[in-house]
Amino acid sequence: MCYDAVNQILEAREGLFSDWHPPLMAIIWRFTDNIMPGPAGMLFLQLGLVWAGAYLTFHAFFRPYGGRVAALLLGILLFLPPLFGISGAILKDMLMWGGLFTAFGIAGHIKNDNKQNPRLAFRLFALTVLVLWLAILIRHNAFFATIPILSFAIFCLYRQNSVFGLVRSAVSAAALALALFVATGAINNRLADRHTYPWIANASFDIAGVIKRLEDKGRQQAIFDQLASSLNSTGSVEPLLKAYTPMYWREVFRTKPPTLQLPTNSMESQIHGFESLSDLQRQALHTLWIQTILAEPVLWLRHRLAVSKYVLGLVPDNSWSPVMMAKDFPVDFERAYGAPHKQLNCKSCLRPVCPSMLNTGFFNPGLILF
Length: 370
Fold this sequence. Notes:
This protein is an all-alpha fold. The chain has 2 domains: about 190 residues, no CATH class; about 110 residues, no CATH class. The protein is built from 16 helices and no strands. Helix 8 packs across helix 9. The longest helix is centred in the middle third of the chain and has 29 residues. The protein is globular and about 70 Å long.
């Protein structure tokens, strides 16, 4: 388990859920933890979704082209390092992937023709929508992957081999995905006992990215002053310029002494995020966020493109791996969850080898896109 997972299992056991991570995952974990304490229950759930998706995808898309050869090709896909490397880590990303994979496999069985009962086709479509909604509830940015899968499902349900048919499927899918996304926000808001305002992290990150790329020193300091004021911080813009990296939003809060101060206990065993900020401060930051993007859309886009390179693994000096965690387990987590298990010999042997392998093409997450 990485730090995110430790936070979530603590919330599951306490029965108090924050919206820093999707509350539904902690709620599900509360159930599985009663049956199989620890990470094993969640591991079986997420791997069950992945392999259910593999089975359904095989029968829908691979089996017609030869069972043995096609099975080998699908197996190679599942054991690519970007996928296999994180499949044993407890992550909301894994549950999202399992949900998307399973939904894609279900959609592949929708055959609205004379060979399939129309009621069965519609039920398969409804099940596809429900599983995609689960993926969005587990991780909100599943919204983007939901649109093409929904487009495919709608096309299979109302097959029309024309440009109009493709456009209709795409527009309908986007509208339905947006409805699911909005409903997800409302549901997560109701499920959360603590509201942490995680959007503030993205807002601060975006504003810092624009400040870094501004050439006018006066404007840099002026925008920084507004940003710092909304976060109960003070100081000069210079440490922020040195600390900023598109790799991770928290870097701008890690200057020593801190220029932008994270609220007390914001990232501890009970995540409070930014709930200590007043409504007035949050509103001021939200306004500054929108104004900064509208005033400097090109600089904001450059910032976001730089972030995307890190996310897709296109930057050789960064390879984030949730399965090779550092040895410094947080003390507050250790008190609440227990000391980490002794590292296995296998992991000890892999630790020095993996960093050199991460820069090879096989470990490029962008490989999954193809």
